[in-house]
């Protein structure tokens, strides 16, 4: 691709960063981030074992308030982890490593379909 040619991969990157921001409730400009720690690294280091530690507490509070069983809680956490992984893929530093937007949309729709059947 010609460097002066427009690409949707920049939009994919921005989408990935916004997705990450929404789910961890932090901005790339927050004090926790600096030259050596960016939002992408912060999340990729935490996944998969410490995803719960970095998620927006309000997402987890909704889980507690709904009085859901362990299986539903596990499925919800899997969905949240999947969304974070999509955000990481979209915000990869190299444009070649970013998922195309149609693939991203398909994955998000699959997550939605697996999550929606849950009845609290």
From TrEMBL:
GO CC terms in record: membrane
InterPro entries membership: Kinase-like_dom_sf, LRR_receptor-like_kinase
> What Gene3D superfamilies does this protein's entry cite?
Transferase(Phosphotransferase) domain 1
Under the heading SUPFAM superfamilies, the entry gives: Protein kinase-like (PK-like)
This protein's superkingdom? Eukaryota
The protein depicted here goes by the name Protein kinase domain-containing protein
Q: Which species?
A: Capsicum baccatum (Peruvian pepper)
